[in-house]
Amino acid sequence: MYRMLLATVLMCCAALLPGCNLLAWLDLPGPPFDATGAYAGTWSATVPGFAEPISCSLDVELEQDTDATIPEDFHVWGTARLNFTCNDVLGYVDDYGLPAVVTLAVDGFMTPGGQLLLGSLEPVSEGAVGIGIDGAGADSDGDGIMDLLDGNFVLSIDFPSYATLSLPGTFSTDRAN
Question: Does any domain span residue 22?
Fold first, then answer.
C-alpha cells in the first residue's frame, strides 16, 4: 500500500518538474501532418449593407514543431493577412476607414484529426482587432505536410470612431511553397 502511495507521489512530483513530460513516456501519436508553410487563397463574407458576399485574398504563414514532445507538437502559430483592397471590398474600406491589409499574429493548436483552431486579439492605435479561425487542414498527397486549409473565421475590428465591425466568413487556402 505504501509503495503504491509513494509511486503516485513520485509521479506527481515528476510531472511538476520543469522539462519533465510524462505524456512523452506514453508514446502517443503526434500530429497528423506538419502545418509549417505558407498558404494563399481567398476569404469570403456577407457584410451588412452589401447585397452580395464580398471576397478578397488571404495569406497565412504557419509554424509547427512536430519534433517537440506532446502536447507542444500540436502547437501552431504564425500570421494571417486579410487583404481589403479587392474591387469587392474597396467601398467598404472607404466607408469604414479600414486598413488595406489586416495582419495578425495567430496562435493555437491542431487537433489529432487535423482541425486547426487559431486566434488573436491585438490592440491597435485606436482600438482592437481580433480573429478566430477554425479550419480543417489536409495532407492530400500523403507526404506528411499540410497541403490546404479551409474553414471559417470571424474578424472583429473595434475602432472608437466607428461601430464595431464583426465579419464572419469562410476561407480556402492552398500551400504556396
Answer: no
